Amino acid sequence: MFAVIFSWLIGVVLAADVHVSWDVSFQNVSRDGFSMHLATVVNGKLPIPPVYVDQGDTLHLHVQNSLPHPLSIHAHGLFQRNTTYYDGTGMITECGVPPGHSFTYKIHTTDQTGMFWLHGHHEFELPDGLRVPFIIRKKSLWEVDEDILITLEDWLQMEFVEKTRLADQISLKLLDHNYPSVLINGINGNLTQPIRFVPGKRYRLRVISMSSTYWFRFRIPGHLMRIVEADGIDSEPAAVEGLDMCPGQRYSVLVDALDTAKYNYNINVTFFADFVERAPNVNPRYYHIPLEYRENAPVKQYPIKEDHQVKWSSEFDLQPQDKQEILEPIDRQIVLGEKEHEPEVGLPFYSFGNYAFSHNTQVPALMTALSMGDLAMDPRVYGPQANAQVVRHMENVELVLNNTNARDHSFHLHGHVFQVVELGCAVQDRRLCSSRTRRSLKWPMRRDTVTLPMHHYIKVRFKADNPGTFMGQCHQEQHLYKGLAFVLVEAPDVLQKTLKVPQAILDHCRILGRKTQGNAAGNWGFNMTGLPQATLVVNNI
Largest CB tally within 10 Å, which of 46, 80, 120, 365? Predict the structure, then answer.
């Protein structure tokens, strides 16, 4: 007993308060070396230095908003248990930090470790530069000689808001050829500095996709990678030849250096989108990270492998280290179909329900849940634009996402990791989908972000053990902007008894002219007078 108490006290003593200060503003930058445009910078610079803490620390993120619009910061992958108001989702958990004001996000790290990231989540701060790795360290089971962080980003040739403005005026197919550049470790992917290996040593590579829209594949020819973490969840070591990563995903892999320094190698990074047409030297696009064993050593060349010949990462080939069994029985099943309506000109509208999601409400969803009493259990009070899904405390929830259309999506659920239990065809036409159904029915891998492939469905499960209001969203900024999201309202009856929103957050709403009580329109009951009309999405693709 004494040993247990002493161990706990040591952990408390070692826990620290980590303070990071950001002044977020606009500035013209050229991150890829040839396109100059207005970007969202921190302390006058990009890239933003990675944030490291140790498990048990509390991150105090002091944010000064020097932008001309509200700002919120989301810690991607963090549960924010009992502090859902720090989830940083504009008009879901807060109204945002007003221009000229400051706010401190307090992020506790007691029950999570691994790779996460911080990014803007109010306007379009993410694609314009406001994104940075957030690493929560712990003593690993795996002894390594060096821990190496590798970040993968896309970078638009213009501001995101400018691209969407043009896209809403011209043919989408014309705009699809304005592909982004690639940044690796914060700079032009063609200028990436070498990663250095020493023969016989073991390395942990932390690979994170901070992409806003497109996919990455990552391979090290001649070297075996063993996945030991996905999205902050430790896994049993799983050997793969490559990582297939949608926007928002993270992997830690162990790589044993070869026993000779005779050759150097190239780490291959492929940047691609299956949902737009292929174009030579554009989609896909190829980059290399030099892997250096010895200065000026020749680079060993390998025969090119077609993608179907490579053993890529898959949730269905991973098992969580803690062997958490599949959640059963299912208390509630939520079935959502991805819908798209493509106009003759401009970007499609998307939805996980009948209406395109919108942040344009008078009251953040969290404050509606806290103020509407028993009516908070009724999804209608959150407005039609929320596509709200209300679940009860501690239910086992199965979420089924159907994608019958011809675009891949990157699905992220705030506030949770979910078990990935099944993937199969969502259409009967075998010309569109011929995949075999994959299932994981004993120890499904858990993660917070997963690919929803075109013409497929996916089933995920989670326990509703974190009362709050959380976004379920496509993590491709363009699709989110046009409506592909819903609000998970979790145990509002419990929230009303346990959660108190900090006064500073309420004050921000007042400054921005928003309300902090009532339904989505700031009224009582189901009166939605004053709420902008939601966009009805009728599938036409």
Answer: 365
